[in-house]
Every structure is written in C-alpha cells, then in structure tokens.
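Submission checklist for the structure archive. All mandatory fields must be present; incomplete records are returned to the submitter.

[x] Identifier: DUF3243 domain-containing protein
[x] Organism: Pontibacillus halophilus JSM 076056 = DSM 19796
[x] Residue count: 85
[x] Sequence attached
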Amino acid sequence: MSVLENWDSWKGFLGDRLSQAQSEGMQDATVNELAFEIGDYLVNQVNAENAEEAVLRDLWQVADQEEQHAIANMMVKLVKNNGSK
C-alpha cells in the first residue's frame, strides 16, 4: 500500500521526513520551501488517492502562489503537531 492511499499514513510519512530533516539541521524556511515544491509536484504529477488529497489538490489549483505557500506551510505545521498520530 502506498503512503498516498491513506491520509493518516501520508501525515505520518511526512511527519517522519520532517523530523529527519530537522534532526539533520534543516532550517524551517528551507523545510517550508521544500514543502511548497513537493506540493506543486504532487498536484501536477500525482493523482489524489483519497478525499483529503483531492481537497488539497483543488485548493492548490485555485490558489495563487502566496496562498500555495500558505497551504504548504500549514501542511508542515499539521505534521509537526500531529503527523504521526
């Protein structure tokens, strides 16, 4: 099963990657920029595997670049707070 198929698995995966990046000294600004780039890639290259991902895709597609950065930052915050729950 792909981590993209289940929302909780996806958040857990992102939370684990975030913890790894932070333990290796990656700065928050770099993490947030990387989250933006990953979000843009996923929206344009990967089909949504569940309803939550479909909502994020739809929001991303109607957002301007500043709003997309905000979405990416909120995803980082989400997994920072409860990604592995």
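[x] Structure attached
Curator remark: The domain at 3-82 is CATH 1.10.760.20 (Cytochrome Bc1 Complex; Chain D, domain 2). DSSP finds four helices and no strands in the chain.
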